[in-house]
Amino acid sequence: MWVATVPHQPAGPVPMIFTARPNPKLVCQYLTKPKSFRFGAFGIRLRLNNHKVSAVKKQLPELETQKPDSEKLRVGQEKGEGFDLGWLPAFPHVFIASMSNFLFGYHIGVMNGPIVSIARELGFEGNSILEGLVVSIFIVGAFLGSIGCGFIVDKLGCRRTFQIATIPLILGALISAQAHSLDEVILGRFLVGLGIGVNTVLVPIYISEIAPTKYRGSLGTLCQIGTCLGIISSLFLGIPSESDPHWWRTMLYIASIPGFILALGMQFAVDSPRWLCKVGRLNDAKAVIKNVWGASEVEKAIEEFQSVIKNDGSDLDSSWLELLKEPNSRVAFIGGSLFVLQQFAGINGVLYFSSLTFQDVGITNSALASLLIGVTNFAGALCALYLIDKQGRLKLLIGSYLGMAVSMFLVVFAISFPLDEQLSDNLSILGTVMYIFTFAIGAGPVTGLIIPELSSNRSRGKIMGFSFSAHWVCNFLVGLFFLDLVEKFGVAPVYGTFGAVSLLAAIFATYFIVETKGRSLEEIEMSLSSDFMSRDK
User: Fold this and answer.
1) Which residue in 226, 200, 224 sits closest to 144, CA to CA?
2) DSSP label of 39
3) Mean pLDDT, to the nearest integer, of 264-268?
4) 325: left (phi > 0), else alpha (psi -120 to 50), else beta?
5) 3 state DSSP class of 148
6) How far apart are CA 370 and CA 516, in angstroms?
7) Residues 232-261: tens digit of each pLDDT
8) Please, what's the b/e burial string for 147-157 (b: 16 or more CB within 10 A of its CB; e: otherwise)?
9) Are 438 and 400 in contact (CB under 8 A)?
């Protein structure tokens, strides 16, 4: 099922052509679905009227009878003729891209236990500031990587950007593994963060652009699954570090292996057909669509791509200032807000410092506590894999944050009220596990998936870069102040705040998030753009 990329054929980028007339065939595809897109609190709603449909149908009757391969597979499944395997051609490419998330998860957990051994061996044991610097410099690198990713992917495409990002990932892991001074460890962690920052932006973009519309949500959850498996792997591999003070070097050497796999695998993966079309490599784009989506999708997909490009222009000419214009400014606001709410809902406070939380309720084995968190996270991600294309992004996101709020309030209740000690401990553990599980069902995978779905083809990379930069800033702040706030105010007030932010996030999603299930990226973009154009008239 692997499809090698067609050799590069030099061609200039598609010229920028501004027109207010959308492609009539594209209009027909989404006018036949009388649904509404909205950005609630701003009173913005797009209505697709039924009376326009019949006229377009008469002009283009051939679109009514054409069925994509995925639809034929679905019909065959209902008749008992076989399983729906329309996702399979795209899976190897998505799997390789998700290796980046495995690395992300691995580096989240790799310093959880060994930081004590590293500090002792390199001579800064007991210095909490330097220990915190070794951990947090990773986030500084990730922030810079996120900001720069949008520009790189616009110019080079996803495949080459993935391969370039493996260079700091591999070098950083090797430098850290053989470090003999604090400076070397900090340099290595910074380089790893730089690569991770690029990849966390890149993976959702890549998956959203190569996955068939019907399976985009399920394939997108592989990001979360990869992160969970990376965390669990680092926790298992970290067990010997409790008895071997030099084991941390082995763990960091191991961290370089997925980087080599990613660089090699991307040599055989396909590039985004949307990007190929934008840079004028039309034959390459058609080849990718034929092999990954099916031959029947080629003509329709190319028409959609070109219609959007003609209206927006090639994103090779886009700039950061375009994020200040509608509808990009609204999507960037939603993307940044979603990540701010996600982080201040406390997920990384719970993940990074889960052992301390469990100590307060009687579980002193930090490895066991962290492993329980990792397995729970993985189970929730598997549920999201099954539900996201059936229930939709919006239901999962709202339900996830409501579940997180209830979980945090349960922990607060268990700690604050005079209960039997055993009952209090059990409720606290249950609340923490429920929190991680409900996060993994919606707030984790949906946040990274829905932002590229709402973003325009022209500015997708920069909107994602902006959104993830907000993520890393908030991630840093939570990690910096969480322990101090717990020591000053206690666990209950801090977790109560996490619960309140989760409720706020559920309300935000209700009023601002658009359901994108079952719609192509071009259909979503044309609908939102048409809505803003109608407001300006």
Assistant:
1) 200
2) E
3) 95
4) beta
5) helix
6) 34
7) 898 888 878 778 888 889 999 999 999 999
8) bbbbbbbbebb
9) yes
SS3 83: coil
Secondary structure of the chain: what % helix, strand, coil (to 5)?
75, 0, 20
Residue length of the chain: 537
Q: Which residue has the tokens 């050799």?
A: 7
Distance, in Å, from the CA atom of 263 to the CA atom of 240, rounded to the nearest integer, reads 29
Average pLDDT for residues 1-8, to the nearest whole number? 38
Structure tokens at 327: 């509808």
As a whole number of angstroms, the distance between CA 286 and CA 282 comes to 6
- Token pair of 387, please? 């539900």
CA 160, chain centre distance (Å): 19
Q: What is the mean pLDDT of the chain?
A: 81
Summarised one tens digit per residue, pLDDT across range 272-297 is 999 999 888 999 999 999 999 999 99
Count of CB atoms within 10 A of residue 32's CB?
Answer: 16
47's tokens: 């209505």
DSSP H/E element including 46: strand 44-47
CA–CA distance, 449 with 451 (Å, rounded to integer): 6
CA distances to 24, 232, 302, 497 from 219, in Å: 30, 21, 22, 33
Q: What is the pLDDT of residues 423-434, one digit of tens each?
A: 887 888 888 889
How far apart are the C-alpha atoms of 498 and 492, rounded to whole Å?
10
Q: Which amino acid is at 493?
A: P
Token couple for 85? 């395997």
Contacts with 307 (C-beta within 8 Å, 6 or more apart), sequence order: 22, 23, 26, 522, 526
Q: What is the pLDDT of residues 447-503, one digit of tens each?
A: 999 999 999 988 899 999 999 999 999 988 887 788 788 888 888 899 999 999 999
Max Cα-Cα span within the chain: 78
Residue 123 pLDDT level (bands cut at 50, 70, 90): confident
Residue type, 337: S
